[in-house]
Amino acid sequence: MDVWTTRWPGHDGVVWYRMRWHQDHAGPTGLLVEYASMAGAVYVNGSLVARDAHLAEPLSRTWVAPRYFLLSPPLLRTGENTLLVRVSGLAAYQPGFGTVALGAPSAVHAQYSREHARRYDIKLVNLGMTVVLGGVFLMIWLLRRQDSVYGWFALTELFAALYAANFLVSSPWPFSTTDGWQAFIAAMYVCAGASYAMFLLRYCERRFPRLERAMALLCGAALAAALLAPGWMGPGRTPWIVVGALFYYGSIGFFLVQAWRRRRVDTTVLALCVVTPVLVSFHDFALFMGWARGDTYLLGLTSVFTLLGIGFVLAYRFVSAMRRVEGFNVELGQRIRQATEELAQSLTRQHALELAHSRAGERLQLVRDLHDGFGGTLVGAIARLEQAPQELPPAAVMAMLREMRDDLRLVIDSTARECGDLEGLIAPLRHRSAQLLEAAGIDARWHLEGLAGAALESHRALDLLRLLQEALTNVFRHSRARRVDVRLVREGSRVRVEVRDDGSGMAASPAPGGAGLASMRQRAARLGGALRVDSNAAGTVATFDFPLAAPLAPGVQTP
């Protein structure tokens, strides 16, 4: 390969290369022009064979791939033939001419295929792999923004793909000059090196804020110079390429040290996959700097090592994550079993407490029912016996015993039935209380309105009956009344209860506000109402209203 700057330093423009060969016959001949930088035209025996689109700025980029020509007999002579190649190039970008092969078409075309695969096809495959890897890691990063290592690798592949286009595209478009294109490529190399350094730093879980800010400033300066001063940066791209190379080699060296210290499987494998491209890059860097002769950059051939390394890293991280998930599931299962056992024990203790509380509540309820019902009946019987112990015939004593029996039956019946008719439940109480009050000379008048069809659950019905029974017992025992009015009026979905007497009021009672009144208030609250008692010298009025439907417990909502 000939680089003309070794003979004519600083020459920009055109150089002609001439080759003569002797041919015994004028049959078809294959011609391979391996390399021409940057653009050129090919002539055989004075006839134009091929010409690039642009032999002046913006120059075509023929050098990216070899060129094959099949020379037909009209172009050839028996004897001496002449090949002329015009090469247009710029001194800053290694202008020159490569080797030429002539011979049988099949042999020359086979050589062309090998050279094309080595210099172009493999780099095209490498570019495709780079774009795919960048796209995959970009999607991973978009789904997991917290894993910035994937985002930096995606950015590295994006810049690397743009830099790799330098070895594939045949035109400097969209730039109007070769300088503009080369400045852009140099800036992409700097940005790719910085992104790769950030990727390795984040993979090692390390941060160097000052160094990272310095790399960002250099990347910004490279992009600004490429856009604003391409005529200066393009020919002077070497320092920028050195900066990008320092990013690469410095970060890789740091990563190799970290991999050696950590001795983790993923970092070790990735380090081994990184070493091969580093060694090959020395060859390419020497070609770029002009320290070595050649026309083929080999770094693109090492992309498979990068693919293997990144593929292994992804698989390793995925397997590690799955193992952590499985371990978490096992631990979670153990904790769930432990919590279930603790909950079962707590429920057992709570159930025992609820049973004890229920039994205590049942005993207390039974005491209240006996006090309000059977106790009241017993008090009335004792009072009648005290008033006329000698005058009561056996039939009256039997009647009092039957009354106490009926009172016990009230407790049993109201407890045994799930739900009862309100009018039917009140009727026995009305009959028994009328006999008791008439014996004391108290006129009892009942007024029931709208209770037809109204029903109450057994425990609520018992609370209502006991409340009324306690109220009438208080009238009998303490009020000294001559008349009592009992009203139960249904108002929509509620029932209003009123017990009014014309006695002397609670102030004259020997034991006002005793256990009976407290029991009445509790029963009214259980029914869903609030008992109100107004008492003065003209009598006492006890009122409350309650819903027919059972009130919800606190915190419970209807569906």
From TrEMBL:
Keyword Transferase among record annotations: yes
Keyword terms of this UniProt record: Cell membrane, Kinase, Membrane, Transferase, Transmembrane, Transmembrane helix, Two-component regulatory system
Membrane-crossing residue ranges in chain numbering: 124-143, 150-169, 181-203, 215-233, 239-257, 269-291, 297-319
SUPFAM superfamilies: ATPase domain of HSP90 chaperone/DNA topoisomerase II/histidine kinase, Galactose-binding domain-like
Keyword Cell membrane part of the UniProt annotation: yes
Cell compartment(s), UniProt: Cell membrane
Listed CDD domains: HATPase_UhpB-NarQ-NarX-like
Residue stretches making up the Histidine kinase domain: 464-550
Subcellular location, principal: membrane
Domain of life: Bacteria
Membrane topology, as annotated: Multi-pass membrane protein
Protein name: 7TM diverse intracellular signaling domain-containing protein
Source taxonomy: Bacteria, Pseudomonadati, Pseudomonadota, Gammaproteobacteria, Lysobacterales
